[in-house]
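Researcher: Quick test of sequence recovery. Tokens follow.
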């Protein structure tokens, strides 16, 4: 009886190790730029606080859709991962989302301006957030 339990536990650990190895290889293979992610978070990730959502951007088909959004000061953009490939959202000011394959991420914009961003793993994957002054008096 003890031998059967040991074989079952060994088989389970072997399958788990194989699954983790396959996930790591898949993540590395999906990147098309040097430094593709070796580990990817698949959990829902949301910044701790954010303003009202003014726009939603979907990460799908190796693009940000829509590529350009316009919001007002104090509003947030919500990014949603849809096609289960590893992506991040990287701004030129250094703020970067976690690398994820599912979930969401928010950024609140408190200063008017034009903010460009990209996926650090796919250089042609870019987007723009245009932040207009608040319409409140």
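Model:
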């Amino acid at each position: 009886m003890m031998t059967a339990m040991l074989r079952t536990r060994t088989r389970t650990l072997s399958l788990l190790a194989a699954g983790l190895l396959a996930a790591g290889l898949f993540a590395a293979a999906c990147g098309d730029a040097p430094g593709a992610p070796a580990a990817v978070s698949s959990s829902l990730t949301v910044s701790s606080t954010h303003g009202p959502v003014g726009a939603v951007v979907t990460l799908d088909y190796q693009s940000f859709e829509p590529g350009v959004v316009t919001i007002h000061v104090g509003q947030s953009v919500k990014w949603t991962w849809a096609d289960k490939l590893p992506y991040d959202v990287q701004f030129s000011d250094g703020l970067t989302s976690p690398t994820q394959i599912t979930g969401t991420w928010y950024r609140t914009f408190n200063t008017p301006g034009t903010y460009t961003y990209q996926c650090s793993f796919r250089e042609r994957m870019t987007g723009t957030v245009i932040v207009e002054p608040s319409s409140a008096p």
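The radius of gyration is 19 Å.
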